[in-house]
Amino acid sequence: MPLERTYRSFETVGRLAALAGGYVLLGLSLLICAEILLRRFIGISLQGVDEIGGYVLAGVSAFGFGYALLARAHTRIDILFYRLGPRVQAALNLLSAAAVAAVACFMLWRAAATFQRSAELGSAAATPLQTPIWIPQLAWVLGLGFFAAVAVMLLVRALLALRAQGSAGVNAMIGPLSLEAGIEEETDSVDKT
Question: Taking the model in full, what pTM does it have?
């Protein structure tokens, strides 16, 4: 089924992006440490570390949204959720998926417009690095594009599951993980390492 292949591809891209993001954040941490030590002991500064940090945070966060959605790691307040019937749970899960997809698509639309405007104007940061703004915005737009694609794909999968399997299929696919399921998933991931 093409949708399942797409899902698996997104999982792969998400894992690779999360891994790359972790290494980029580690590199940024080392750069910040070097900046602190150089300022403290030698009295010089690596210009633009804070600027680079902002760009890294925007790009890594944007890709992280999609990865967290695939891993069902976004925070959901479910104190009453499990006391509701399966049909109501499925309706709320679908509403949640639709809302996330709408927000992700809106974010992508506005980010793409901002990126396009910055590229057209040749905007550069008013900082010592004078970074052309379209460069970090490109990572931001790509990350939000991944998030939007994942959100829409998960919504479509959930709607297909509703049609084929009813409420139970939707709840199993996009519902929040129960405490037991979360513990089991974490235990499995520890066992694999």
Answer: 0.84
DSSP string covering 49-117: HHHHHHHHHHHHHHHHHHHHHHTT-S----TTGGGS-HHHHHHHHHHHHHHHHHHHHHHHHHHHHHHHH
Query: What's the chain's length in residues?
Result: 193
Q: Which two tokens stand for residue 81?
A: 């959720």
Q: Provide block-wise average pLDDT over 10 residues at a time, the chain (193 residues).
A: 83 91 93 89 83 90 92 79 83 92 97 93 85 91 95 92 85 74 66 66
Extract the tokens encoding 23.
Answer: 């290494």
* CA distances, 33 to each of 28, 48, 131 (Å): 9, 14, 22
How many angstroms separate the CA atoms of 28 and 22, rounded? 10
122: left (phi over 0), alpha (psi -120 to 50) or beta: left
Question: Could you give the number of structural domains in the chain?
Answer: 1
Structure tokens at 4: 């399942």
Please provide residue 132's backbone torsions phi and psi, each rounded to the nearest 5 degrees.
-60, 120
**Residue 107: partners with Cβ closer than 8 Å, 6 or more residues away:** 144, 147, 148
Longest alpha-carbon distance in the chain: 67
